[in-house]
Amino acid sequence: MSVSGNVFRYPEEIRDDFLQTADIQFRDGSKASPAEVWHYLTEIGPKKYPHIYDYSNYYGRKISGDVTLPFSLKHNYLIMTMDERMTKAKQNGIPVVFVQGGQSVDPYYAAGAIALRPASVGIWASCQHEGLNLNQEEVRRANQKEKAYRAISFEVCQSAGYENIQEGTVPVDMIAPYSCLRCSDVSYGLEAHRHGKRKDVKLFLADYPLDHQKDKEWAITYFAENIRRLIESIDELTGGKTTAEDLRKEIKLHNEGRRLAMEIADLWWSAEVPPTNGKDRRDLFQMGGMELHGDPEASLSLLREAKGYIAERVKKGQKGFGVSDNPVRIFVCGSCVFPNEYRIEEVGGIVVGNDNHWSDITTIVEEDGDPFYNLAKAVLSYPYEQSIKERAKWTVEQIKRSRADGVLFLYNWGCNTQSAVARALVDEIKRESGVPTLIIEHEQQGTQSEQLQNRVNAFVEMLK
Amino acid sequence: MALKTLEIIKKRLEERPKEIEKARREGQKVVGWQGYNIPEEIIYALGLIPVRIGVGGDDRMVEIGARYISTKNCVFVRETVGLFAENNDPYVQNTDILAFDATCLQTYRTAEIIQYYFNKEVLILGVPRNFYWPEAKVYFTKEVEYFTRRLEKQAGKKLNYQILADTIGLYDRIRNAIVTIYTYQAAAGNYLSWEETYDLIHAGYYLDRREYLSLLEQVLAELREKQGQPFIEAVEGEARIFLSGSVLPPGDKKLIKIIQEVGGRIVGDDLWSGLIPYLDVKIPENSLQGLAVGYLNRTPHGALPYLDLDTDRRIKRLKELIQTFKAQGVIYHTLRYCDPYTFKAKETKDILQKEGIPLLEIHTEYAGSDFEAIRTRVEAFVEMLKNRYDEEVAV
Ligand code: SF4
Ligand code: SF4
């Protein structure tokens, strides 16, 4: 790794090894060779997106310095090329659908669309602005968000890309999230678009029934109908006709991603010392959701390659870059807000897992039988969306498997449904696992994340 | 000018907790419920005592509730949790079973918290968000059937469909009486104010429903005698206000008092705690399916998202009610962290503006600290409405 004046550069010494690694395979059959990736990361990226190369620890999304993990470099490449890739897909007539919450994206891809969550839409919008330094990029983001707060309400927890979609900066064709227990803003944020100026964006809500939903046949049947209608709505955009077989195939593909992520998690958690830093871990586990890059095949090719590297490091007892000796292991619960992993590592901690966007990945969809029904049943079984006790039981299992020393429950200001159960969940976790816990609210619109970080760091210090 | 029957109701409300206690001693069970889509008819038909729980306006109770649920939940649900934490409210003390629906996710969470911390038996009724789909009606019917099976267990008996039919008839009469009383309160020369009507509705949360109907009918008889045929018209010097937005439960009178103090006259509402649950209820058949469909076809609660503005029945109904009650402006009340209504405030304002109806959003909690600030804004709004009336009459 090389850093000069707080600007990151990929070191030439790793180039040759990197060029020996696998291509990234894309859904449209195209590929990106390691040479292309390398060229992009070392020549194009630094000019186009200087803010991404800012190496201050205060920048939570900064590039991981673990340069000998090829998937980490390729992940950055996929992030930086989001605008180019989405623009290309749109030119090829592929609709882009905005989704939200921890949900499987199998049906969207089965119907021939791309499904993007708020973070990915934010990346896409960000990638449209070249040459900005970190400060300029943050000002740009804040200004954009302000527009959404004005248009909807200043009490929205986060704007869920409303501003970018309504302004047409990201040409999303459809907004079609699942409603779910985790979040009330999903439904009302979606509804707010009906009043926006863009009338060409299709709106659809996949209605997630609540309360012991996974044990009720009628709830599963109803949600299966929602998936069917969701696919039909996407078909109206593409002009195609998605079959049950298309969905089954897609489920198989996504199951592979989910399984790989779980296998990698098992390896990672079994290691004496953490084989990657927290940022790489999070990206890697989350790839199992197959939505991070807007291209499931690309995510899958990274996962396939990553598994070997993680296994190797675990075997050798090699520690991830930036991780201290014997770090305090933290498990994060809650939603839509994450501590800065680099800052945690600075004080001798590491985030070893999180519940959000993991519960869906750990739910494998049955492959035989009616795929609509199977998918509905799986989605309604996500542990995160169950009752307090059930969710806590699953969370405790993850805490034990990841050998966490402490649990942080974080929620955004304005996040009604997560904040509502924060104390109950944490009380139950404490009772069942004995692990120390801390609840922190992320201040309104992210303006005081420093305060959040200080409290997180104090918690880590306390656990040492 | 208070009606005699209102005095009787007041007295009966004072006696009611003891009466419920006695009924429980004699083996009857009380179902405390909260939500928008729970068909109360089923509870009553099973011989259980329905009580609609949840009050507002007490900041201390909100504070207590927030220790269990969070400060980022609306004050109504925080106060509901507070009621259970403190356990002093006679209706809360006398609740055997709780029933909540999943219309608003915060109500759902409240049910979870009460179950978790206060060890209460809670039944939840799932509510579809795509409520206008035929499949959603099937889903909701199944939910209502499942809900009924669990209530039957509590009641120790099966639902008798003849009793259900009679109960639906009883409730239809209650609904019709309330709708008619609303016309009287909004009319010229009214003997009953909107606030008294609001209290009258809330009396029905606690009193036995048969007795409640007879009291409503007495109120109507008195009104007919004193007021004759009601005629709704705007009168000079009035600022006729329509209330919309988040719930104003029993006990939350801050905004109502302010409006009245500055000379506004509330003439109608589309509140969850007001008129709206009693409107447009057409139970197509005396069965659980009939109830499910009838409830789902009412004007939807704001917590159920609807994606097409042009065909939104809630907005259509809002416009109609403003017309019916000859309201000149809308005060749109939003409780902090009530996303279902807060997110729609600007949209509603824009829509009504196109119809020439001004809207004032009041975003508040139960604390009294914003009393003066709200008063100043409401006063200016009321003045504006009065001036508009004068200008319109002058033209
Ligand atoms: S922070 Fe909470 S309310 Fe906001 S999008 Fe996330 S889960 Fe939903
Ligand atoms: S609709 Fe609003 S006021 Fe009512 S329970 Fe939900 S959040 Fe609270």
What does this structure look like?
The complex is a heterodimer of chains A (464) and B (395). Chain A contains 18 helices and twelve strands. Chain A is an alpha/beta fold and 464 residues long. In chain A, strand 7, helix 9 (185-192) and strand 8 (202-203) form a beta-alpha-beta unit. In chain A, helix 2 (34-48) packs across helix 3. The longest helix of chain A has 27 residues, at 244-270. Chain A is globular, with a radius of gyration of 21 Å. Chain A starts with a strand and ends with a helix. Chain B is an alpha/beta fold and 395 residues long. Chain B has helices at residues 4-25, 40-45, 59-66, 75-86, 90-93, 105-118, 134-155, 161-186, 194-203, 209-227, 254-261, 288-296, 313-324, 339-342, 345-354, 371-394; strands at 30-34, 49-52, 97-101, 121-125, 240-245, 265-269, 329-335, 359-364. The longest helix of chain B has 26 residues, at 161-186. The radius of gyration of chain B is 21 Å and the shape is globular. Chains A and B meet through helix 9, helix 10 and helix 17 of A and helix 6, helix 7, helix 14 and helix 15 of B. The structure holds iron/sulfur cluster (2 copies).
Summarize the structure.
Chain A is of the alpha/beta class and 464 residues long.
Keywords:
heterodimer, A: 464 residues, alpha/beta, Rossmann fold, four-stranded parallel beta sheet, 18 helices, 12 strands, 10% strand, B: 395 residues, 16 helices, 11% strand, globular, binds iron/sulfur cluster
By secondary-structure content and strand pairing, the structural class of chain B works out as alpha/beta
- Which stretches of chain B of 5+ consecutive residues score pLDDT under 50? none
Q: Count all strands of chain A and give the number.
A: 12
Kindly estimate the percentage of residues of chain B that lie in beta strands according to DSSP.
Answer: 5-15%
Secondary structure: helix percent of chain B: 40-55%
